[in-house]
Amino acid sequence: MVAVVAVSLLSTKKLNRRFGGITAVRDVDLSLEQGEIRGIIGPNGAGKTSLVNLLSGRLAPDSGQIVFQGIDITGQPAWKRARLGIAYAFQITSIYPGLTVFENVAIGAQMRIQQSSKSRPLPDQKRSLEEIVGSCLRLTGLDWSRTQLAVELAYGHQRLLEIAINLAVDPVLFILDEPTQGLSVDEIEEFTDLLKRIRSNRTIILIEHNLPFVMNLADRVTVMDQGGILAENDPKGIQMDARVKTTYLGE
Amino acid sequence: MDNSRKRSLTLHIGVLAFLFLLPFVLPDYHQLTITRIMILAIFALGYNVLFGYAGLLSLGHAMFFACGLYAAGLPIYHLGWAVPSAFLFAIAVSALAAALIGAIALRTQGVAFMIVTLMFSQVVYLTTLYFSDTTGGDEGLVLPGHARSFEILGMQVDLTSPQVRYYIALGLLSASALIVYRWVNGGLGREWVAVRENESRTRMLGYNTFLIKLKAMVISGTLSGSAGAAYGLLFAYIGSTFATIQYSIDVLLFTLLGGVGTVLGPILGSFIMFYLIDFFSEHTTAYLLATGVALILLIMYFPLGVLGTLRKKWLPWLP
Ligand SMILES: Nc1ncnc2c1ncn2[C@@H]1O[C@H](COP(=O)(O)OP(=O)(O)O)[C@@H](O)[C@H]1O
Ligand SMILES: [Mg+2]
């Protein structure tokens, strides 16, 4: 008999984080499988951003444990976690406004090249900076803008640029915090295609307010409310869940 | 890309070649002035690594200049060291001082960083005064005769000759400019700029931004220290005036004036500023006021400096 064992890429145990009197993240046990797209939804202030900040190392937990690829990363600084393959696209776009689009992505590519000499080799050995940047720009459809300053790009393109910068480091786990916020309907459609193209060998956490978008893409959906996990299921199950309906979907 | 690299290299080499030929047409007085300016330009070059590339505004860089100055001069004066070993020693001491001070000061950011560097610099200045038995304090020390010449590779070098001093200064400036040019155009330069433009983004890509800033601090402090050492050795004088805030402000001005984040900017800025101060001090005793006004006008109208403005408007290839 062939047992299909789900490989856990990342798991948290009783993760807690308070801000003064508010418990932003409360006893969260989360487990991600290798290769899945996990949607995280929940009302504003539910703790979604705080939770992924704990995962990426931008915040330290008050208690609890985070294990990534079998390594306890709870105490590791953000940059070390990034080197292990955790990438983060901020809720508020974070790029290098004063640099060209090419240079923006080159900063990510340089990290990948530095890293490749060690534990994670590049797929084909001598991929130069130029090539990595080129492929990330083509993938995100930004190739035309290489020599433009990032600050001159339209908002939607800046969001894509942040994705391109992150793709350049070739992350194992890619966390996207409300990537479609402020995008037009057309842009969201293109974004959906992009995520389908980049998901092949990655695990993705997708924090979203746009329910049709996340229900379409996610393999599983976690619903957060007041810092805790309210429900977790596949998209169909979530849409049927009575508790979710009353507290979040508002039906 | 490649073409612009060639052009910028040509420009840099052209500037150095121009400086090389200058003494053949210049009277002695200006030769001496330009020797001083070139040493101060090394200081500015070093300052610019930290400020222009890594984006960290230090208000205390005179401490590194003074550190090199004293680390070179004191062993010569008190222990009879030879010039070359004193110079190397000064470079090592400056690097160490920059690493130690950096490790502490870089825990702060923005205004706090400015204040912490300023305070460290005051500590260095007051230390030179406190130990005036050893350092000569305000009056300083004139280095003894044996420090006016040295032997290297079988050659006797006479430091009392204006030409010799000029070419030593030019040699040091060229070497420093070349090193800085290579660094800022390489991977390290990209990391500095990344930290300057968006530190948290950079950290989230896997860069140890503290270490990147520390490297900038050490390289910057070492260059500043070697400028101080060269100044003391070429002109045979060490004194605590070089540790005053005046020198920290001057180097900031040179960099701002010439162009933040360009290799040639600080060199150009040192030249312009030096002659401006010269000009003002001939006509008014309030030349400090004049420098202050210049600083304010600069920040208001040319925040990018001469070369920075040129680069933005016409010469995008300028490194
Ligand atoms: N840095 C912070 N300081 C204080 N309170 C914070 C901070 N970050 C988040 N919070 C609070 O934690 C709760 C969760 O916020 P957040 O994680 O941003 O939620 P979400 O991303 O789901 O909208 C909110 O009540 C918010 O006000
Ligand atoms: Mg949020």
Please describe the topology of this protein:
The complex is a heterodimer of chains A (251) and B (319).
Chain A: E1 8-19, E2 22-28, E3 31-33, E4 37-41, H1 48-56, E5 63-68, E6 71-72, H2 78-84, E7 86-89, H3 101-116, H4 129-139, H5 155-168, E8 173-177, H6 185-198, E9 203-207, H7 211-217, E10 220-225, E11 228-233, H8 235-240, H9 242-249
Parallel strand pairs in A: 4-9, 4-10, 7-8, 8-9
Antiparallel strand pairs in A: 1-2, 1-3, 1-5, 5-6, 10-11
Helix pairs in contact in A: 3-4, 3-5, 4-5
Chain B: H1 2-21, H2 28-53, H3 62-79, H4 83-105, H5 110-130, H6 132-135, E1 141-142, E2 149-152, E3 155-158, H7 162-184, H8 187-197, H9 199-204, H10 209-235, E4 237-238, H11 245-258, H12 265-283, H13 287-301, H14 305-313
Antiparallel strand pairs in B: 1-4, 2-3
Helix pairs in contact in B: 2-7, 2-10, 2-11, 2-12, 3-4, 3-5, 3-10, 4-10, 8-10, 11-12, 11-14, 12-13
Structure overview:
The complex is a heterodimer of chains A (251) and B (319). Chain A has helices at 48-56, 78-84, 101-116, 129-139, 155-168, 185-198, 211-217, 235-240, 242-249; strands spanning 8-19, 22-28, 31-33, 37-41, 63-68, 71-72, 86-89, 173-177, 203-207, 220-225, 228-233. Chain A is of the alpha/beta class and 251 residues long. In chain A, the strands form two sheets. In chain A, strands 7-8-9-4-10-11 form a six-stranded mixed sheet, sandwiched between helices. In chain A, strands 1, 2, 3, 5 and 6 form a five-stranded antiparallel sheet that branches. In chain A, strand 10 and strand 11 form a beta hairpin. The model of chain A has no long low-confidence stretch (mean pLDDT 89). With 319 residues, chain B is mainly alpha-helical. Chain B has one domain: Orthogonal Bundle (ABC transporter involved in vitamin B12 uptake, BtuC), CATH 1.10.3470. Helix content of chain B is 74%, strand content 4%. Chain B contains 14 helices and four strands. A two-stranded antiparallel ribbon of chain B has the order 1-4. A two-stranded antiparallel ribbon of chain B has the order 2-3. In chain B, helix 3 packs across helix 10 (209-235), helix 11 (245-258) runs parallel beside helix 14 (305-313) and helix 12 packs across helix 13. The longest helix of chain B has 27 residues, at 209-235. Chain A binds chain B through residues 56, 58, 78-80, 82-83, 87-88, 90, 94-99, 103, 106-108, 110-111, 114-115, 165-166, 169, and chain B through 187, 190-191, 193-194, 197-198, 200-209. Adenosine-5'-diphosphate binds next to strand 2 and helix 1 of chain A. Magnesium ion binds next to helix 1 of chain A.
